Every structure is written in structure tokens, then in C-alpha cells.
Amino acid sequence: MTLERSQEYLLSLLSELTKLPNEAEWVEFKHNNDPEPTGEYISALANSAALIGKQSAYIVWGIEDKTHKVVGTNFAPSTTQYKQQELESWLLQKLAPKIHFRFYEFIANNEKPVVILEIQAASHTPVQFSGVEFIRVGSYKKKLRDFPEKERALWRVFDRVPFELQMAAENVSENDVLKLLDYPAYFDLTDQQLPEGRQGILSALSADKLIQFSDNGQWHISNLGAILFAKRLYDFGSLARKAVRLILYKGNSKLETIRELEGTKGYAVGFEGLIDYFKTLLPSNEVIGKAFRTEVPMYPELVLRELVANAIIHQDFNLTGTGPMIELFESRLEITNPGVPLVETQRFLGSPPQSRNEAMASFMRRIGICEERGSGIVKVITEIEVYQLPAPIFEQTEQHTRVILFAHKDYKDMDVEDRTRACYQHCCLRYVNKEPMNNASLRERFGIEKHNKAQASNVIRDAIKAGVIRAYDPSVGPKSRRYVPFWT
Confidence class of residue 217 from pLDDT cuts 50, 70 and 90? Predict the structure, then answer.
């Protein structure tokens, strides 16, 4: 959590840490600084904090190691450079994964300068510094590989606690919970009446695992609570980069950016506003009907809602420094989320649904932001066909999943790849709807007149040649032949 820490908070934290009888597996005291060991300590403390269930670990400069007296420090991270780089930038560059950490410089009660480094606990894999994983054994920093029992225990922790139930902020007061989370939006979206008393509010948030009562009478805010209902994601440092970015480009390249917007609110709170703003940026297509011309959105709203929701829900939160991104070009739209898909991109339509973040997915379905399990992509392709848009591309990059939508094209302007992709998706859609794909259904998909049915036959031939569809019963004559996806 990266609230702007007040002097009062930092003094209170310093007091609590210095009361510890000894350095702990999650706390290190130092007088002055040496950059190389600091990076190793970040790794060791982050891993140890995860192992013992702490959300954060700390290094404190300006403390005498044995007595824990505040003696002051000459270390000033804001002005320190190492190897011709700012210290913080150099440390971040050496860490993998790039966990969140932050230095706080302040003056203690005895007028001595003190620095506290707050370190995010490891969440899904051990943290390395310069390619080496470290751990705390008592108050000593050791290489993790030398302690296999601790390494096994650490991996068990990662496997046991899903991202949503890990903590975004620990030991937060009641007042701060209500300041940080948009609780009226929670009650509105879940169709509950807002309780009159504070305890009723906290009890409801706790029942949905958005917050958790702590042993010391304070509250923890879960990642689920923060990512969905944060008033400002930047109040939660590890989640700040998970805000949705919306970028509008001039033309069809990334050379010139017209506008860029980065969301600040939690996904549940900010979703409708994001979609509404998104729609204002979309150009329209002019459709000529039988009697008049009409303007329709370039992309159907249901398609936008479902694909943006999917990008949010199915992202891999363990990939740090990156979040969902929407890029709007003159004639296409790209929606990208961190994490490779859990099913093959060719099987998005027709595979049993899987989600990395089931608690979040369930909540988003509950409040109507996305469709019921497994029906979203079906509805996306259905809408694409109703609007007779080119078939979208679902693709996997090294660490991301991307969906590309295209503005309207007439059949004559589509290339073989466009037509083959549309034929395959149409075949999948018909299959999951328990309907046969044939020449007639494909003509309807493309808006091809009956007397031009040879055009549809050519598309089917190209799709068979590409290996994405096959004849259900090859012995049946061409006029009655039905087709199914290659994976059936």
C-alpha cells in the first residue's frame, strides 16, 4: 500500500519496529547504506515476509542494531546514485519480479534523520536480486537455494493463497478503510441498502472478502477489495500499474498519440465510466438501409463491454508493471491484457471457461459487468456477425493476450485470411449453438446473395485447406454438406 505516509504514521511505525526484541525475518536495522547488500536484503525480506504471512517487510536506516536506539543516518535515497543511476531505479532493474518498494525519509522525535524502506512481500514466485534468490534465517541473509525446506514451504504459500485473497493493505483503521474504498458503490452495485452504522458497512465488506479484521483491532484490505473498489488505485502501490489505459492514435500506427487516459478507480467502480468515455471516442459507420442512411457505432457496445471485462478478469496479476490496455486506431481496436491465455486462442469459442481470478470473475458476473460463465465470447462473435464486421483476431504474445477488432469491411474488400478466420469463427459459433454450418449460413454471415453461393463455397474450400474446419460427413453431396470445427 502506498498511501502518502504521514509523519505521524511513520513515527508510529518506527516506534513499533524498534520495540521488537531482535531483528525479525521481516525487519532489518541499519545505520548507513551499501547498495549491493540492500538489493539482496530486499529479496530476502520479501521472500521471508511471504513465508510468514506478512504483507510488507522493512529495512530501517538510522537504528543501532543491538539496542534499537535511533542514532540517525547519512543515507538519503532520494539523492543517492549508484553506477550512474538513481538508486531506486538501479535496485528495481536488478529485481525479478519487479515488486513494489518505497523509501520514506523523515525526522524522528529526537531530531535524527531516519529512512524506512517498505517492501512488498513476494506473491507468486521468489524474488531474485541479480539472478539470486535470498531468504532470512533468523536475522541473517542467506541464499534460498541453500535452504530447500524453506524454498518448498515458500512455494506452498504461493500455491495456497490466490491473488484476490492476498492483502493490498494491512492494519488500516476503520476511517481509512472507508476513505480508501468506495463503499457506497459496493452497496449500489450489489443492490443492497446502505447500512446506517459503520459496523454494518464493515461487516458487509468483510462478508464479501473485500476486507478482513485483524488481530490487533485494525483491518486488512484484500486485493479483491482494492482492485474492484479503490477510489484511487494509486493508493495501493502494488496495484497502481493495473489501472486500465486507453490510448487514441491518429491513423493506423502508433506514431502519433491524440489522447491517453489512465483509469484511477477500481474496476467495479470505474467500469461504466470507462465504457462511456470509450464510446465517445469511437467513430461511426454509415449504413445504407432500404429507405434511409443511419449511423451506427463502429463496434457494438456489447462487444466492447465483454472484451474489456475479459481483459480485466483474465489478466495475470503476477506480471508486475503492466495492466490492461485499450488502443484505438482509425480502422481497428486492440485490447491487451497481461498473461498468456489459459486455453488456446483458437479454442476461445467452444472451450470450457477457465479463469486465473475466479473470485473476481464471480463478483464481476454478480454485478452484471460481464456475461455468465462461458457465454461472453459466444455473444461477442454473435454481435460481430450481426453487424457483419470482420472476424476479430485472438492472439498470444510472449506475456500477453490480445484481441484485435476491425472496422466494417465489405466482403469484396476482405482478403483470404479475413474470410477464412470469419468462416472458422462462424463454424465454431454454429457448433456451440447446436446448429449446422453450411453454405447458406455462411452466405448469411457475409451478406452474400444466393445467386453468388459459389463465393461462399470458395471460402469454405479455403478454410478446409487451412485446416480450421472439416466436413461433418464427407459422403454427403456438396449441396447438403455440413461443416464442423477442426477440433471436434
Answer: confident
Domain boundary among 106, 133, 161: 161
Closest CA relative to residue 283, chosen from 306, 250, 313: 250
Alpha-carbon span 416 to 488, nearest angstrom: 23
Neighbour tally for 290: CB within 10 Å? 4
Do 116 and 59 touch, CB atoms closer than 8 A?
Answer: yes
Looking at residue 291, its pLDDT comes to 45
125's CB contacts (< 8 A; 6+ apart) are: 97, 158, 318
Q: Please name which of 119, 122, 230, 121 lies closest in space to residue 172, comparing C-alpha atoms.
A: 230
Q: What nine digits make up the cell of 119?
A: 517492501
Query: Is the CB of residue 224 less than 8 Å from the CB of residue 209?
Result: yes
Q: Is residue 359 part of a domain?
A: no
* Cβ atoms of 407 and 328 closer than 8 Å: no
Tens-place pLDDT, residues 435-470: 989 999 999 999 999 999 999 999 999 999 999 999
DSSP string spanning 416-478?
HHHHHHHHHHHHHHHHHTT--B-HHHHHHHHT--GGGHHHHHHHHHHHHHHTSEEES-TTS-G
Q: What is the DSSP letter of 166?
A: S
> How many distinct structural domains can be found in the chain?
4
Whether the upstream peptide bond of residue 341 has omega within 30° of 0, thus cis, is no
Which residues lie closer than 8 Å to 484 by C-beta, 6 or more apart?
427, 431, 437, 469, 470, 472
> Same structural domain for residues 306 and 401?
yes
- Single-letter amino acid, residue 444: E
How far apart CA 133 and CA 144 sit, in angstroms, is 5
* Mean pLDDT lowest among 285-294, 391-400, 402-411, 426-435: 285-294
Domain's final residue, options 161, 185, 201: 161
Are the C-beta atoms of residues 306 and 300 closer than 8 Å to each other?
no
372-393 residue pLDDT tens: 666 789 999 999 999 989 999 9
Q: Measured between alpha carbons, how far is 430 from 399 in angstroms, rounded to an integer?
A: 31
**440: containing domain:** 411-488
Q: Rounded to whole angstroms, what are the CA distances from 425 to 27, 329, 344, 353, 415?
A: 55, 23, 14, 17, 16
Q: In 3D, which of 422, 416, 414 has the Cα closest to residue 445?
A: 422
Cα 434–436–439 angle (5° rounding)?
Answer: 155
